Amino acid sequence: MDKRSITNSHHFVSLLAGLGAMLCITALSSLDRLAPSSVWLMAPFGATMVILFGLPESPLAQPRNILAGHLLTTLIGLAMAALVGVTPWSMGLAVGLAVSVMLLTSTTHPPAGANPLVVMLAGEHWDFLLMPVAAGALVIIAFGVIYHRFISRQPYPKRWF
């Protein structure tokens, strides 16, 4: 391959990743219209798009990491807020615990590291764990599988769980 075709291929893959991210976030935000009382989006999902569509072969982009990473870190944020409240120390502790737990359980998903802060700063409650976190992560994974198999033609997932 010459330098020009490599550059063109890189541009194409980059644009394809952006398209996947755009379509997935559009689909999630459109679900708000079907279930107006439910929230389907949270900021860390935007960062999940970078990994899922830009680096689909990465261990960080695999379904186990996306789902468990988001669930565990949200659970830590909720528990910390309920047990000790929201302070600079508790937010720092929650993020530190989230990082440690993801690494210890081999469920590292960097965007999920923000979840304790989202939960604690927004004053979220336990139902946030199911909606948008669990439901949104499952939709993202399903969308990623379909998108990569039929549009980007990249092998995804590399492993399920």
TrEMBL record:
It comes from the Bacteria. Pfam families: TM_HPP. Residues 13-157 form the HPP transmembrane region domain. InterPro entries: HPP, TM_HPP. The keyword Repeat does not apply. Keywords: Membrane, Transmembrane, Transmembrane helix. The chain crosses the membrane at residues 12-31, 37-55, 67-89, 128-150. This is HPP family protein. It comes from Marinospirillum alkalitolerans.
